[in-house]
Fold:
Amino acid sequence: MFEKITANWLSFGILFLLILLAVLLLWRTRRPHLQKQPRKDIMPGFTLIYADQKQSGKKSEGFGKLLYSAKYDLQGKPDYIFKKRLGSAIVPVELKSGAIKDAPLPHPGDLLQLAAYFLLLEDIYGKRPSYGWLKYSDYMFYVRNTRNLRKEVKQTMADMRKMLEDGEGTPNASFVTCRHCICNGTVCPYGQYHRNGGEV
Ligand code: SF4
Structure:
């Protein structure tokens, strides 16, 4: 009798764990890669552990320091890095002064900059950030650190290094990549969209 009750509880426990696992997997695969929201500047449950500038009147050791990753040969100063109070999650936040208005996606260069910070922080803190925030003056984007994004930024870095070495490169000119680029219509002969609205 006792053995039968124990076996029933064991089967129930295994079933419960399997259901929990299925729900977690579903949640992981359904999570959006990018999500646009009205901008907010609060990070409840997080502590600021780095800023690209010293913070007056606050404990700010290491703030303003140029961060370097030997593994990726990358350096930079993310605007802010937050750490979750419960746990060890690291979240970079990058601020942009302009507005994004109705655009459904962030500017590609801004996205790659945040993706490069994901790599930098992964090496420095020994923990891969699972997401970060790109904040424009009007909206902000939740950006998940996906395998595809990491692949894209590593490929872009490799292309840029090759271009610096041999002086040759293929521009990735398109309406989307060029429309907010400062070089478009000024110094770049490959721009696809002039800022005055004219086609090339
Ligand atoms: S305008 Fe030129 S430099 Fe700027 S994104 Fe387009 S191709 Fe690249």
The first helix runs from residue 2 to 30. The chain has four helices and eight strands.
